[in-house]
Design a protein that fits this description.
This protein has 532 residues and is an alpha+beta fold. The chain contains 13 helices and 25 strands. Helix 2 crosses helix 3.
Length: 532
């Protein structure tokens, strides 16, 4: 194996630093990673891939680490990515018959999509926790994904290298108002954060940071990887759904018991729960086998002989394989809210229940699909929600004790009828597995900021007291609720600091009254896919 450190020239003369790992002196298919997080972080992975007969190029994107220029997320990649492909195609070690594969991980996937839209030599990819749109990374349901968007903006927007985030008082930082000051309170001014705070709706600024239009311009085999506790579960699924419908090539999806970083580290468990040896992601091994088949033309190894959709069902901790998403064996069901319960039958009467949201004492985030951020006390995974569930400002609807196992596999959403005493309110919906011992295991959640109920591009204020139909996207579920357990739906006005606080429309004493409505006139329900 031989390593070369190169500087390729972008179209405007800036120098993009790249490490090239070569198996020997011949021509090889190339695997490419373009990263803002420092190319040395992928050096060991690159060496392992080189040992399988690939040339591997790992590049620092413009303005990061050893590359010159100023970093401008996504915008710069539209030209720098194709320029990188052009450079590779001119190298003596490049095998043009076999082509290039993209190593896509989170932001790196977006960079790869933009390059693929302009260069036909890219012939395969793996997309791990990836996204095609920056807005999907920083926002959800109209709220800012505060716990990740702020530190991520600092990581990529403060200087050329990653700062030490452990030195900040993150409890204080996250509570900063106005949010525009939070980066400076943390001690790391970030232009990226300032831009995010300036563009609070999806305007033309965000359209420039999206690759959705570019996805139409290419088609090749993609291996999609994400986890039930991944902050990019929804965006990765959106990409898979798009290619599942459009592509003439094979697409394969794995969803496991992993967090965003866990797809790379491949741990056996999260939050004290051991998912067993089958719970490992083995991402890079699977990725290598994918590239070996589609670039190098090698016979597929046994572990790849799976169906297009492969789900690790938590609760029973086993893989299930399907031909499509949602799974062909899953039946859409609706669980209707009534009183404090959930049931399949519609309620014939109408009811309501209210809670007071106080931004000075918001419901706290405990586990779930969060970014790994120990400095802020954030741990992903199926943590016990009891500390949150017992609060008076968290309303719970529970199924009866299950008489048999209930397995859910597919998309999930809550259609909620709600009202507020102001112009806006946040509606956080969480699905919980309540065990006989009282532990309440996180399964899925979502949020809707109600003045964005008609979409992220415009503000439509609530009329105080008027009941509105609200759709809260919970992304997806792959979980078995065991016999004797209960499926619980918990509703509150926030989950902090996962999402930022909604301070619009507060009334007396700076609080907000929110009402949940159900029954004949207001059929609030949870839509799920039940696997038989």
């Amino acid at each position: 194996m031989k390593k070369l450190d190169e500087f390729l020239e972008a179209g405007d003369g800036e120098k993009l630093a790249a490490s090239v790992f070569l198996p020997g002196e011949g021509k090889y298919p190339v695997l490419l990673a373009m990263t803002p997080y420092g190319r040395e972080q992928l050096a060991q992975v690159a060496k392992a891939m080189t040992s399988r007969g690939f040339a591997v190029v790992v590049q620092d994107v413009r303005g990061r680490y050893d590359s010159t220029g100023s970093f401008s997320p996504v915008k710069q990649e539209r030209e720098d990515g194709p320029a990188t492909i052009d450079w590779i195609e001119k190298q003596r070690w490049y095998d043009e018959e076999k082509g290039i594969g993209i190593i896509g991980i989170s932001y790196l996937s977006l960079v790869g999509f933009l390059a693929a839209a302009k260069r036909k030599s890219i012939k395969a990819m793996f997309n791990a926790g990836g996204l095609a749109d920056s807005f999907d990374l920083t926002h959800r349901g109209g709220a800012i994904v505060l716990h990740h968007a702020l530190p991520w903006s600092i990581i990529i927007g403060h200087g050329k290298t990653q700062p030490d985030l452990g030195s900040a008082d993150w409890e204080k930082v996250f509570k900063t108002q106005p949010l525009e000051k939070a980066d400076r309170v943390a001690g790391y001014p970030s232009r990226v954060w300032q831009e995010l705070c300036t563009h609070k709706i999806r305007d033309d600024f965000w359209e420039e940071l999206s690759a959705w239009q570019e996805l139409r311009n290419f088609d090749f085999p993609i291996l999609h990887f994400t986890g039930w506790y991944d902050i990019c579960l929804g965006p990765t699924l959106d990409i898979f759904n798009y290619f599942q419908e459009k592509s003439e090539f094979e697409q394969q999806l794995f969803i496991g018991p992993w967090s965003h970083s866990g797809t790379l580290r491949s741990p056996n468990g999260l939050a004290g729960i051991d998912f067993g040896p089958e719970g490992k992601s083995d991402l890079f091994q699977r990725g290598l086998n994918w590239f070996a088949h589609f670039l190098a033309g090698k016979k597929r190894e046994k572990e790849l002989h799976k169906k297009p959709v492969n789900l690790f069902i938590t609760g029973e901790n086993k893989w299930h394989c399907f031909n499509q998403w949602p799974p062909e064996k899953a039946k859409e069901r609706k669980l209707f809210l009534r009183g404090g319960s959930l049931g399949y039958k519609k309620e014939t009467t109408t009811g309501e229940k209210s809670f007071i949201f106080d931004p000075a004492q918001p419901p706290q985030t405990v586990g779930g699909a969060v970014w790994e951020f120990p400095a802020a006390g954030l741990e992903p995974g199926p943590l016990d929600q009891s500390p949150v569930s017992r609060r008076e400002d968290v309303i719970t609807f529970s199924s009866p004790k299950l008489k048999e196992d209930l397995t859910l596999a597919g998309p999930a959403e809550c259609r909620l009828f709600g009202s507020v005493d102001g112009e806006s309110g946040d509606w956080v919906v969480r699905i919980v597995d309540l065990a006989p011992n009282g532990k309440r295991r996180w399964v899925a959640d979502g949020i809707l900021r109600s003045h964005f109920r008609e979409g992220p591009r415009k503000v439509v204020s609530m009329v105080p007291g008027r009941v509105e139909s609200l759709k809260i996207d919970l992304w997806a579920i792959g979980h078995t609720f065991k016999k004797g357990h209960r499926l619980c739906l918990e509703i509150s006005g926030g989950s902090f600091p996962k999402w930022d606080l909604n301070l619009i429309g507060l009334r007396e004493q700076n609080v907000r009254k929110q009402k949940i409505h159900w029954g004949k006139d207001f059929p609030s329900y949870l839509k799920i896919f039940e696997l038989k």
